User: Fold this.
Amino acid sequence: MAKRLRAGDVIPEFRFDTPYHPQQSFYELLEEDKPVFLVFLRNFGHPLTRNYIMEYIKSAGSLRSARLVCVVQTRPQTISRAIPEGAMPYELMCDAEGVLYRFFAVPSEKSRMKCFSLKAMKIINEAKKQGFRPQAGEAWQLPLTLLVGPAGRVLLAHYGATLTDLPEDCAAMEELAADLLPTLPAEWLAAAPAAPVADSFSAAFGAAAAAPAEPAPAAPEEPAPAAPQADDGSFETGFDTPLEAFAAPAPQQPEDGPQDLGALLEGFEAPAAPAAPAAPAVQPEAPKAPAVDFAALGFGAGN
Assistant:
């Protein structure tokens, strides 16, 4: 049964497709020594998704305390045809059918006043100038930001109240993770044996819904601690504010024009590990990621 995730919940094991490798194990993804941010976006050709994909590419080197996986409602072959493997500095999880979105109860909203923010308006309006045409009566998919630890333990779950209520870049994720991780119960971050891998989303989630509670320590009714509370309460109220909270729209600030994803990827270099005090051996220069024609995907491309 679909439900909203909370800190302390355990996500059951499942397999997922990347643009380049089918049927990857979710629990194997979590086996490394850093937790994973799962950021749920729209399809890969949507202007809002495009905006955050580019922001996360530009700032990927800032994320050190955790790793990043973006979940998109796009078929793997749509992305693999346009973006070569290895060009992205983080992984993509493809869920074109929206199975994860439904299982985690990620909501949609039809009221623009309730789900739009000033930033969302700017992104959509700029995309319209470039040819984007939203469908009439379209429900706007809201974002979900998860931080997940070993064996599927949810360390943080934030359901966006607006279309842009999610971390604006990897620096924001790093700040959030660095503040949160030291405050969590030790058992939440301890490695645990993975459950048997199911053959499909439906099998994994169907079994999870029917099975009794897992033997792992259960989260209290009021998880301790919950999402981090910044001194200014910024995370408590979300990453941004719906338009309905404003009496009138604030004046828009000038911003740079649209950026090309291919140019960003072409100049991207993966963040290097912290340098040792002395490094006598010179490492060969890594080849630059190939240029990517993001426009080849087209606005709205997804299935």
